[in-house]
Amino acid sequence: MSGDIGTAVHVPSFAARDGRRAVETRYVDGLPQIVAWDLTTGRRRQATTAPLGVETAAIEPDGHGLWWFDAAPDGRGRWLRGPFEGGHPRPALDGVPAGRMHGLAFDPVSGLAAVGVGVADRSRYYLGRPGGHARLVAEEPGYGVVVGLAPGGRLLATAGCPAGPAAVRLWSASGVLVDAVPGAAGDGAGGAAWGLGFRPDLTTARPELLLVLERAGRYTLAFWRQGEGIRTHGPGTALDFDTEITACWYGPGRTALVQQDRAGRSRLLRADLDRGTTTVLPTPEGTIIDFSCAPDRTVHCLWSRDGEPPRPLICHPEGPEGPEHPGRSTTASRGTATRGTTGSGRRELWTRRPYGQIHSFVATPPGRAADHRPWPTLFLVHGGPHTHDRDAYDGRTEDLVRAGFAVVRTNYRGSTGYGPRWRNDFGHRVGLAQLEDLAAVRGHLIDAGVSEPGRTGLCGYSWGGYLTLLAMGVQPRLWDVGLAVAPVADYTAAYRATTPALREVDDRLFGGTPEQVPHRYRAACPTTYVDRVRGPLFLAASADDEKCPPEQIERYLAALRRRDVPHRVRWLGGGHDVGRDPAGYAAAWAAMVRYADDALRASPRTADPRDSGRTGSHHPVHHTEETEERAMS
Asked: FRET partner for 551 with CA separation of 20 to 30 A, picked from 95, 103, 371, 403?
């Protein structure tokens, strides 16, 4: 296989019983591919040449086989298995139908593997030996994912809706439902639960499953033990956190590694579940994008901060030495590198509102451009909504500040890293609450002299693209250009055509289905406000997108054409993950930057007679007819 093996997408996954072998996901010719890594010799071998890239990979506990999910643009596919040394890949488990990837787990003791697969609107769980025939263990409606297989293959753990009555289910190998962990606490205060994997060193005792519980506005590290239920030290201990965490077992005993996200940054801790204590691992300020544990108990991280591309970091939780930065100088490994490779200004903004403070990361142009404030400004709107922008490298930000834009990344209500209240408490006002936050930050930046009216725009992907379209209709006086990639344009239509997992997310966001709360979906739908959209708009989408289906986007585009709204559309390959069409997306991104430059470099807009006194203008560089461009992979 040919190609230059580039930077890491994820941290390595190590063979649990053979610490000399690992699998990585790295960029090769612009696409993520699977790489076999022999730690003894240091040799890396490209294992896949998937035309759309490969995002998910694993290695068997004995290191003999590599697994990856071979997906089509619509997300459906199968697990494949190839020898570590190289060879022709084959189905990882016979008898498992094609479908959506719903998790994978190995058991080093029994040698069994468990996979979840989504078929239509159901989740199926299979058990078998690698390369052999698998049998169906359990099946249930909706979205569920495999999170663990207990030592000896005695129990299978699956996770569904974290806030549901059975957030985590425990199945016997014969398919009997043994127990369930509820998401809600049972006291009417809500809550959630996440399953994170079985304790790997328990081969004879009762299996133990690591958990994160949301209770009373906090996140608690806990574990479930067969026959005893949930065990936790409860609130007020070191295992109780105010913002989101994830974790994995670490070494023998009840010890775990915890990553906590707070206000766009993260930290790693070692937690003792018996004593209820934690120890912070020394890592540089920034973001731990991903981490994993090697058999020698070192912790491999992928680390970044704003302006600095991701790079590997190795921590030694049990040693006195600080983190290692493989391939970097001693000075750099001590975290003293200059922030901001472009020389642009990096700052944080906290915008006070009655319901809390809105946190944003702001980057402004470098060099002489710094004297030209206020700048044309683009908000890069994150998706999710339950994720967050962070103190980490973003290539789009670097492109835009070099082009002379101020760039704003705002963690609106619904974002993670600020606690359950910020994530959940906006009264089912989906989209509208988030637009209030973006508008408040825009006003703050204008008052601070960073931005100016008439030169502010929005750019978003997926749910961020949805917010971009919604803002252009709900707040047409505020936003002067909208760039939307793979967006939701008609929420009800998208709900009916999307995946079961996303329908469950929407059920929680809106408090019901479109049939149960139609007024909430109408209020949150960009199509509802299409008569108020004035553009200019640039939409990029994929005809293979299962999550944000193209039909609802095409209807929105038709409405723009009927109203002579200036816009442009570009169709990409690769499905919802536009990164699977790197050449097409690169061309689309360059076109979007030019489009935004045309809109925001012009003089601040003046009143348009059609707006009945609203602030706005025509931009003569845009045409009222649609310009359609196609870039196929």
From this structure: 103
How would DSSP label each residue in 34-80?
EEEEETTT--EEE----TT----EEE-TTSSEEEEEEE-TTSEEEEE
Q: Largest Cα–Cα distance in the chain?
A: 78
Structure-block tokens of residue 577: 């993950």
- Tracing tokens 């089509």 back to the chain, one arrives at 72
Asked if the peptide bond before residue 374 counts as cis, ω within 30 degrees of 0, the response is yes
| Residue with tokens 């159901």, as numbered in its chain | 122
Long-range contacts, stretch 118-126, CB < 8 angstroms, 24+ apart: 118/143, 118/499, 118/500, 118/501, 121/500, 123/158, 123/500, 124/97, 124/99, 125/156, 125/158, 125/171, 126/93, 126/95, 126/96
CA 546 – CA 497 distance, rounded (Å): 8
The rounded distance, in Å, linking the Cα atoms of 588 and 630 is: 9
Cβ-in-10-Å burial (0-12, 13-18, 19+) of 404 comes to middle
Whole-angstrom distance, CA of residue 47 vs CA of residue 67: 10
- Which residues of the chain are modeled with pLDDT < 70? 1-3, 185-189, 319-322, 325-344, 367-372, 602-633
Please give the helix or strand (H or E) that residue 400 lies within, else none.
Answer: helix 395-402
Q: Could you give the CA distance from residue 600 to residue 607 in angstroms, rounded to a whole number? A: 16
How many CA within 13 A on the CB side of residue 540? 30
Q: How far apart are CA 34 and CA 583, in angstroms?
A: 20
H or E element at residue 10: none
Residue 351's pLDDT is 97
For the sheet containing 255-262, what is the strand order? 245-249, 255-262, 265-272, 277-280
pLDDT tens per residue, range 89-144: 999 999 999 999 999 999 998 999 999 999 988 999 999 999 999 999 999 998 99
Name the helix (H) or strand (E) containing 500.
Answer: helix 500-510
Which tokens is 523 given?
């209020």
Q: What are phi and psi of 521, to 5 degrees?
A: -70, -40
Strands 482-485 and 537-542, how do they pair?
A: parallel
Which residues in 220-252 are b (16+ Cβ under 10 Å) and which e? bbbbbebeeebebbeeeebbbbebbbbbbbbee
Name the one residue in this structure whose structure tokens are 């007024």: 519
Residue 140: phi and psi, rounded to 5, are -150, 155
Sign of the torsion formed by the C-alpha atoms of 382, 385, 391 and 393? negative
Q: What's the chain's length in residues?
A: 633
Q: Which amino acid is at 89?
A: P
For the stretch 439-462, what's the b/e string if a residue is b when 16 or more beta carbons lie within 10 angstroms of its beta carbon? bbbbebbbeeebbbebbbbbbbbb
Asked whether 358 and 411 are in contact (CB, 8 A), the reply is yes
- Is the four-CA dihedral 542, 594, 8, 290 of positive or negative sign? negative
Is the torsion defined by CA of 416, 417, 421, 427 positive or negative? negative
Give residues with Cβ within 8 angstroms of 261, minimum separation 6.
243, 244, 245, 388, 390, 416, 417
- Between CA 282 and CA 270 the distance in angstroms is 11
